[in-house]
Amino acid sequence: MIEKERLQTKINEMITYFPWYRDYLSSMEPDDLLRLPLITREILEKHYYHQDFNPAWKIYQTSGTSSRKRKKIVYSKEDDQEYLDKKVHIYARFLQDKPIRTAMSDMGTGHAANTAMEVFKSVGLICEDIPYHLPVQDHVKLLKQFRPDCLYTMPSILESVLSATDHPEQFGIQKVILVGEVASAQWQNKVASRLRIDRKEIMDTYGSIEIGTIAYYSHEHGCYLFVEGLVPEGIRAEELGLDEDLLREDERILALTSFSRKTFPAVRFVTYDVVRGFKPIHVAGKMVPSFKSLVKRVGTEWKHGEKISFYDIEEAAFRYLDKATIWIQVDHNKLLVWIDSPYITDFIRKQIQVDIQDQIPEIGIMIRNGILDEIQVNVVTDPKQFQTDRVKKKVIHHKQWERH
């Protein structure tokens, strides 16, 4: 239970930063977090993503929205410091059991990439980074030259690097910190084997540009633990107006409240990430919220190196097709786009694939340089294949449109 005074302070702060929030409150003095509105994608698109912000704040742009504009998410100086402090605390604790002196960041673009050097220098390490626009063979070359004790990267980038060399053990990596994408236990075991380290030397972390670091995997407890200062909730699909069949009985959509984030409306913010095994556990004499695994994302946004939305995909396809039905699937962090249209040809399919990849320029650059897998665009030959129970569970989003 959150203290009423602390909750009221947070609500007052929200109204100060975001006056529109007042219109969504049923009471100016709620006595329970659950009485507050969920901050959904629709609310953020209407009030936050495209507003004008204080020029002193840092602005990060990510995937597109229904307005065809890329989202803007901001950090004040105070927010940035809090973001850094959390990472430094978690990473330093993970690295303390080995004589780690050097780190290398191979992170693509975005907030995590931009702050990597500062984070590891604050931990006390010598740090280098690999520019995201370099070809994958240059990533391999730089890793062999620098031989970092710790590698900071995303699963999709690490997968490409490992595929580009026969002897990744020559990198000399002792620890790996993962961010940005789902990293299954099976995949981590494979990576540990190729690097010739124990899996406990790999720490998977979960975060978002909106909140920062959210949780990290604890090998001691066999689950992900939420960072301090966050209040997580597990939301059922029907609470968001979604089909209840989207989730298994042990799955919930994650909503978060942050008492430290200032310049984002982080009170019951709906992440649209689905976690499994959400429950509190005993850690060092107190109850800490946890989850077993991060399984998927529902809605209109996915991660392929960087965030890409359904609107980005729709805009690319709409340049060539007057009528179509599309499905999106995610398979081991690989994005698959399926299109059913009477007008599609192989030439158009290839053009749509190129255009989708270039909707977010950073994604296109990393794909061309072999750092990310291509976003595959496929033609649907039998629409019934998406109506079976087996395939339906894999479908993330489906939409039909027609040009008028």
> Using only CA atoms, what is the Rg?
22 Å
Outline type? globular
Please give the count of helices: 11
Chain-averaged pLDDT: 86
With strands numbered from the N-terminus, the spatial order across the biggest sheet is: 4-3-5-6-7-8-9-14-13
**Annotated CATH architecture of the largest domain:** 3-Layer(aba) Sandwich
Distance between the termini: 52 Å
Main pleated-sheet profile = 9 strands, mixed
Q: How many structural domains are formed by the residues?
A: 3
Which spans of ≥5 residues are poorly predicted at pLDDT below 50? Answer: 388-404
CATH topology of the largest domain: Rossmann fold
Count of distinct strands:
21
CATH class of the largest domain: Alpha Beta
CATH superfamily grouping of the largest domain:
ANL, N-terminal domain
Report the structural category. alpha+beta
